[in-house]
């Protein structure tokens, strides 16, 4: 998988010069592109994970395309619907011969080494964030405060790689990374909740078959929208006869109703308030007892939400004037915003209102995915939230360091475009599920609940960042509390909290804690 002169998906879908491309033209070009990528040989390289306080761990890296086939059991071979790019890290050496074929999940157990499939979210994101942020043997090192480091950028050894716990396979969902679909119909089907789950389930199953790893314990790790798909994949794999041993959900987003600020949906206004309080305390905007510490701010907001705020939002226009004034004053105290603004917003503070108003007098906007980070307003200081300083700090370092690593170390073609974040995929995503029409609140919590009930050995590890205002920890608390499982089954779900944002692993102390806590969880 070396140098390549093949066209990109974008050129394949573009019109021919001087004329509009027909649907058949586009489909033929996309089909040819998928066939070429699937025909490429895997790029293989060797590396060594150098660990602190433990023996070095040699590994093989394998970068290859996996076909998405709708029915692998059809009497006649079906044409692949997509070519999905994967990068696997497989432990080798005397303790792990044949890339993990005889290694052990636990000391003394005579079973193959466990394997974890990982992906990010978006939708429209490649897997580069988990790959080069926390899990892989190389990582992009970021400042602990979440700010953007100066260039140049390069990956460094990651002694806290999850390769120490299990083999790793990073998956770029269709239309991210180098992954592409074989035609417009297949593309549209995969740009949606259910089609995406079907495609990634097929990839996992196909990878296990190709590499003869059905004898391994299988885990799945997803971040952000990757948790949305991961929760559903946990059940979908059961339908293919694959029972997961573990599911890792980083910055959970299983229930979009908890996250979407739209008319008639009051849930996010309540669930975001503890996160607002934590961020406001960090930026010095809280007074009194709630301003004493991040924990004090969170606890005060959590108690207010349960005891008063939810009921007040439920009452709406029937709330009395004295009651309304009391609620507005308390929301202002806990969010760091002016009480007049809270009243003007009808007691409901959206995420964008918080981002643009908390530090407005200082000329700063607050980050969404990392609320500790700020960015400058324009000179006009208008109310539009034009960019997220939390993610802007990460994109260029990861993009530049990652693509250099892919070419120089993994031996991938330098002229293939690697789609790190696709706005087009995000905008065209179909959030409906099943037979419903029109985009509603996607929710895969029921899928996870059924998977937990169907598979008595499935355990779930959830990681939340206190300064994440994209998927706030308190919204995750709510989603996990609403899982339709009995109490004894709920005990198989572990939730841990970290002192950073959405990508909590960019903070070195949280990277260390996450590594240790996942390791302890794997050992059970």
Brief summary of the model shown:
By secondary structure, this protein is of the alpha/beta class. The chain is built from 19 helices and 14 strands. The longest helix has 22 residues.
Please describe what this structure looks like:
- This protein is of the alpha/beta class.
- The strands form three sheets. Strands 1, 2, 3, 4, 7, 8, 9, 10, 13 and 14 form a ten-stranded mixed beta sheet that branches.
- α9 packs antiparallel against α10 and α10 packs antiparallel against α11.
- Helices cover 39% and strands 15% of the residues.
Instruction: Tell the overall outline.
Output: globular
Estimated helix fraction: 25-40%
Q: Show unreliable segments.
A: 98-110
If you compute it from the alpha carbons, what radius of gyration comes out, rounded to the nearest whole angstrom?
A: 24 Å
Largest sheet: 10 strands, mixed
Q: What's the N-to-C terminus distance? A: 39 Å
The DSSP helix count reads 19
Strand content: 15-25%
What class would the helix/strand composition place it in?
alpha/beta
Look at the structure and give the mean pLDDT: 91
Number of strands: 14
Secondary-structure map:
Layout: H1 9-13, H2 23-39, E1 43-49, E2 57-68, E3 82-91, H3 97-100, E4 115-119, H4 128-135, E5 138-139, E6 156-157, E7 167-172, E8 180-181, H5 184-190, H6 193-210, E9 218-224, H7 225-239, E10 246-252, H8 267-271, H9 273-282, H10 294-315, H11 321-335, H12 339-344, H13 351-357, E11 364-366, E12 374-376, H14 389-408, H15 423-427, H16 445-454, E13 459-465, H17 473-481, H18 487-490, E14 493-498, H19 508-523
Parallel strand pairs: 4-7, 4-9, 9-10, 10-13, 13-14
Antiparallel strand pairs: 1-2, 2-3, 3-7, 3-8, 5-6, 11-12
